């Protein structure tokens, strides 16, 4: 129940601010994963609409890269086809 009272963005609850308006102090924090995702998102590489950036373990990223290379060599399109509207 207490978790439901907390803001999903900052993690604080209104009662905490009512008890002490100075109970928290904002500080900068850099998450390396979020930083890498943001840097890739700002890349100018063309992407299919709806593409998101996610973090995957190195081994899975290598597997995905090899799979994409294999598909390109076989001439299989990696871009989803548009469906005709009926």
Question: How would you characterize this protein structure?
Answer:
The chain is mainly alpha-helical. The protein has one domain (2-44, 53-73). The chain is built from 4 helices and no strands. The chain has helices at 2-5, 14-19, 32-41, 58-73. The longest helix is centred in the C-terminal third of the chain and has 16 residues, at 58-73. The termini are far apart. The model has no long low-confidence stretch (mean pLDDT 87).
Features:
single chain, 86 residues, elongated, 4 helices, mainly alpha
Secondary structure layout:
Elements: H1 2-5, H2 14-19, H3 32-41, H4 58-73
In short:
The chain has helices spanning 2-5, 14-19, 32-41, 58-73.
